[in-house]
TrEMBL record:
TM ranges: 41-60, 67-88, 117-140, 161-178, 184-205, 271-290, 310-330, 377-399, 405-424, 497-514, 520-541, 607-629, 649-671, 692-712, 718-740, 752-775
Topological type in the membrane: Multi-pass membrane protein
Pfam annotation, one family: Aa_trans
Protein name: Amino acid transporter transmembrane domain-containing protein
Keyword Ion transport appears in the UniProt entry: no
Amino acid sequence: MVGTQPPTDQDYNQATNDERLAKQKAIDDWLPITGSRNAKWWYSAFHNVTAMVGAGVLGLPYAMAQLGWGPGVAILVLSWIITLYTLWQMVEMHEMVPGKRFDRYHELGQYAFGEKLGLYIVVPQQLVCEVATCIIYMVTGGKSLKKFHDTMCSSCKDIKLTYFIMIFASVHFVLSHLPNFNSISGVSLAAAVMSLSYSTVAWGASVHKGVKPDVSYSYKAETTSGTVFNFFSALGDVSFSYAGHNVVLEIQATIPSTPEKPSKGPMWRGVIVAYIVVALCYFPVALIGYRMFGNSVEDNILISLENPTWLIGMANIFVVIHVIGSYQSLNSRQSKIMGTQVEANQKKVPDKVDEKLRKQKEIDDWLPITSSRNAKWWYAAFHNVTAMVGAGVLSLPYAMAQLGWGPGVVILIISWMITLYTLWQMVEMHEMVPGKRFDRYHELGQQAFGEKLGLYIVVPQQLIVEIGVDIVYMVTGGKSLQKVHDLVRKDSKPIKTTYFIMIFASVHFVLAHLPNFNSISGISLAAAVMSLSYSTIAWAASAHKGVQKNVEYGYKASTTPGTVFNFFTALGDVAFAYAGHNVVLEIQATLPSTPEKPSKGPMWRGVIIAYIVVALCYFPVALVGYYVFGNNVEDNILISLEKPTWLIVTANMFVVVHVIGSYQLYAMPVFDMIETVLVTKLHFKPSTLLRFVTRNLYVAFTMFVAITFPFFGGLLGFFGGFAFAPTTYFLPCIMWLAIYKPKKFGLSWFTNWICIILGLLLMILAPIGALRSIILNAKDYKFYS
C-alpha cells in the first residue's frame, strides 16, 4: 500500500521558484524587447542602419568644414572603426554568461558595475540619448515636412513649424502601439532604404552640381577661439552620427539563440552589413559635399543643393520616412527597466590569512599615511586649513568681479556649505565598516563602486588634483619669491622665474623625506598661520586703501559671450578654492581610533575649526577686495594693493611659507600611492633608499613641469575642472548613496542629489570658461620664462 507523503520544504521552494519563473516569463513575453525572439539576421542589419544613420548625416559636410581635410577624414575613419569595435564588444557580451542573455544595455551595466551602480551609470545616459534623439527626430520630421511643403508650394501661405511637427507626431500616435521590435521591422526596413536613398541623393546631386567656383577649404571662423570651438562642435556632430549602440543589445534580444547557435553569429552578420551601409552613406556625403562646397557648405547639405526642386522635395520626404522608423526603434526601447541580480562569490584561503595580515601590517607601518596614528584633533584642524586655503584665495575678488554681487555671494556661501557637508560625509564614512578604516580616498571608492571600478573612478581624479596642485604651488612659490626680489631690489637686473622655482624646489628636496603626515605637522601649522596672515593682510590693506574713485561693479566684458565665459571661469576659481577633500581621509588616518572613541569625533572638531578659519579667510578677502576695487581688481589682489611695499613683501613671503606646507600636504598621498605600488605590486623591499629615490624624482618632476610651463595655473583651470568638482562636490555624495542607500525622496536623498547636480554643472561649465581663457591668453604663454 502506497502512503501519501506530505509536501516537504523543498517541494514548496520548488513550487515557489517555478511560480516566480512563470511570472517572469509572462512579463518577458509582454515587454517590447523580449516579446518576440524570432528575428532573422537581416532584421538586425536594417534595424542597425535605421538606428545609426540619422538625418545628421546631412550635416557631415558642414562638420568637415569645421574640422578640415586632415583631421576630418581621420576623425570619420577613427569613429567608424572605434564604434564598430565597441559594437562588436556589446554583441560578444550579450550572452557571455551561460544561460543568461543581457537583453538591455542597463542589464549589462549591472553585471559590470553592480546591481544599483549599473543602473545609476547606464540608465540616465541611455535615456538622455534616446529621449533626446526622439525629440530631435520629432523636430527633424516636422522641419522636413515643412521644407517639402515650401519647396513644392513656394507661393502658398506660410505655415508654422508647430503644425508640421503635430502632423509628424500623429503618425507615431498609431505606430507606437506596435508591440515589439519585430512588429516594426517593416517600418525599420523602409527607414533603412530611405536613409541610403537620401544619402545617395545628397552626394549624387553634389557631384552633378560640381565644384563651386572659388571654393575654399580653410577654416571659416575669423578668430582662433572661434575655430577651436567650431572644431569641438563638429566633434559632437560626428559623435551624434554613431548613436546606434544604445539599442544594439535590444536588437540582438529579438534574435533566437541556442547553445549550439548563439545569437551573436547572425547579429554580427547583420552589424557588418549595417556598417557597410553606414560607410556608403557617411563617407561619400561628408567628403563629396565638402569637396564641392568647401567651407561655404550649409549645416544641411540639401540647403546648399537648392535645385532641382523635385529632387530636394523627394529627399526631404525620404528623411521624413527615415526618422519615422528611427523614432520607433528608439521608442521601443522605453520599456520598464528590470533589475538583474548578480551574485559574487568570494573565495577565502584561511591558511594564508595570518601571513597576509602580518605582511600587510609591516607595509602599513612603513607607508606615510598609516605609519603614525597618534595625531590630536588640532592636527586635523591645521592640516585641513593648509589643504583648503591656498594662494587661490587672493584671486577670489577677481572671481567676484566675474560673478557679480548677487551670484558671487550666493556661490561663495553655497560652495562653503556643500563642501562642508561633503567633508562631513567623508569623515562619517571613514569607519563605517566595523573594524575597518578607509585611510585613503580610493579605498572608500572601492567600497562604494567595487575593487577595480573604484580605483578607475577615484585615483585618476585624485592624482590630477594632487599633482596639479603641487605643480601650481611650485610655480606660485617661485613667482612669490620673484615678486619679493623685484620689490626689494627694484634697480637690479631681472632674474628669470625659472631660478626662483628652483630655489623654492630646493626646500622640498629636503622636506620630502619627512616620513609621514604627523612628521610635517609643524610645517603644516606654520602654513595654516601664514594663510590666515596673508588673507588678513589682503582684506585689511584693501579696507585701509578705501573704495577707489569711479569704482564699478558691472561686468567688465563688453560682449554677452565674454561675460558668460568669464562667469564660467570664475566658477572654476571658486572650485579650486575648495580642493582639500582630496586629503581628508588621509588626514583622518593619522588620528587614533577605538570602538569607544572613533576618530570621527576629533576629526570633525578639527574640521569645524578649519572651516571657521576658511570663512575668515575667504569671505573678507572676496567681499572687501571686490567692494574696494570693483571690476578693476587684478587676478591677484596683492597686485591691486601695490603699496606699502613692506606689507606686500611680507604677504608674499607668507604665501611662500604657506605653499611650502601645502605642497608637502598634497605630496604625501602621492608618495603613499607610489610607495604602495612599488612595495605591494612590484615587490620592492621597503627601505630608505627606495623612499629617497622616488620622492626626489617626484619633486624633480613637479619642478621640471613648473619650469617648463610657468603658466600651468591657467591650464589647470581646464584640466582641474574635471577633477576638483567631482572629488569635492559630488563624488562623496554618490558614495554616500551607493553605500548607505538612503530612503528615496527623503531629505538625505534629495540633499545628495542636489549636490550632485550642482557639482556636475560646475564640472561641465568651469572647463569651458577655462578653455576660453587659455585660447585668449595663449599668445602670452612662454615656456621656460
